[in-house]
Amino acid sequence: MRPPLRADDVAVDLDRLLSPECTRCDLGAASKKRALELAAEAIADRHAPLDARDVFDALLARERLSSTAVGEGVTAVAPGDRVAWIQPGSCRSVRLVPADRCVKLPEDVSTEIAGATLLRGLTAEYLLNRLLPVGPGRRVLIHAAAGGMGAILVPWAKALGGVVFATAGGPEKCAMAKAAGADHVIDYKAEDWVAAVRDLTGGAGVHCVYDSVGRDTFMGALEVLAPMGMAINYGAASGPVPPFPLQDLHPKSLIVTRPTLKTWIAKREDLDAASERLFSA
Asked: What is d(CA 178, CA 19) in angstroms, rounded to the nearest whole number?
């Protein structure tokens, strides 16, 4: 039985990216590996490279929705509207979602694109536009440039006028980063990326490092930053950043931050503005 609607709820049918087999499976007991395989089979239209987390997020169906009913206090969303949200616990036929967490999808944005990009797209939006705005001539280094986040960060940073330095592992991934718009691509498996960034910038360094890797790369970021530069760690693919003396930041007046999307879209007006920038980018 569907739970009763509160005034600020939206009831959502999950028109999901899942195969019938996956829809029936018990995700609590399913292995992540098998879940990834099922989701990968269900995603037919890939407009950007997807990594494991992209596919698993699609499997959990957090981001592909169509509203079926709304609470009496909801005015921004109507039954039948295509909406999306970022929230766990969505692998079910009907989900109640707080209306102020719903994003109404523009007509020219497919549910497939929204499902594959909403989480990462909103993350890229605040990283590039609000945390440290990228503009003409700003030198930025993007790690894991061929991954799900890199595929959004690289072309968006370039479109904003940034000079994009990118790292990736192996010739194929480096080619993907180059095709996405990176000005300089470094194969970290074949060369010392810290030395390469220094050489490419003539020793000046970069203004910002976008680091989703964590333990294996973050301390190197401090070495390649220009004075008053910012190191942004927004992921920990290799593990969390180890403790280090705060005094290490002193010689170049460096700034480090470990942000999360949740706080950047906590206010309804911020979520709306971020979504509009994402879908119009």
From this structure: 34
